[in-house]
User: What shape does this take?
Amino acid sequence: MKPFSNIHEILLLTTTSFSHRQLCEKNDGDMQTHLTINEKLKTACWNGLLEEMLPEVLQSHNSEKYFLWEVETRDSFLKIKLAAYPVRLDKYHSLDPYVFSKMRHMN
Assistant: This one.
């Protein structure tokens, strides 16, 4: 029997005021002024922004520790995948609108 783990999928919209706020770098030596807003937000997610900005989303009800496994850049959002260990996300249950529209049965 396969072990069961919850997967957190977060869509962080990049066209909102939340994503356009000024981000502080952890290291002053990093010169990332040439990066776009989406790239800066993606880097901030890898550097721990999610735990600081969205602590209630990342709280586990079963004391399971979640790790950031994937951050995908899309046209207007970042798709973030968190899980206890690397698992494959079921496309049928995905929040990604590109996947959702393909999985929907049309008449």
About this structure: The chain has a mean pLDDT of 76. The beta strands are 7-13, 67-73, 77-83. The longest helix spans residues 37-46. The radius of gyration is 16 Å.
